[in-house]
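User
Class, as today's exercise, I want you to study this protein, comparing sequence with structure tokens, and judge whether sequence predicts the tokens.
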Amino acid sequence: MRIAVMGTGSVGPTIAGALSALGHDVVIGTRDPQATLARTEPGATGGPPFGAWHAAHSGVSVATYADAAAAADIVINATNGAGSLEALAAAGAENLAGKVLMDVANPLDFSHGFPPSLNPVNTDSLAEQIQRAFPEARVVKTLNTMTASVMVDPASVAGGDHSVFVSGNDAAAKEVVGGLLAGFGHRDIIDLGDITTARGAEMVLPIWVRIWGVLGTPAFNFKIAR
């Protein structure tokens, strides 16, 4: 499939590289492709500069948000949650209409320091805000409850014996996303329900951050035992 991954932090390139390795036609969307490719500073989480990453993943193209979304069958939002609505607006509602929009971002609020809080929270979610802003897109929330490396390589934790959630209003869109998740190796895919259930998935983040602090590593995930 033709997949546009929006975002050039740690999550976007990780997902893009994994999808490309699986044979998908992948493009990374960014505000300014030339500036992004020219970056020489390490990633925020210690990863390589984007230019160095791209040199090792030359099969992944880089384009503006709008050009990336226009050519894609599926759009993945891996932007910083605080800037997701702005980035998707730059992609263009007309380029998102009718397409599966897989949202993996979290609405982290660092205005009061670390650990972050969430905004929105409890009575709303980032996924719902995206769905309202782009009503013709088929938004599916998933993968936001784990670190990027576990998203694309679930077998790296407990042999893959853990859970991933999906939320969305469109059953067919959730099936498409489920196929991508299975392609990564996820086996326990739990459909939480409509897009409002993304509130619960996003509210996992406060406990996730604290577990990371205790374990000293983000290489873990949640298993729903039943």
In short: The chain has eleven helices and ten strands.
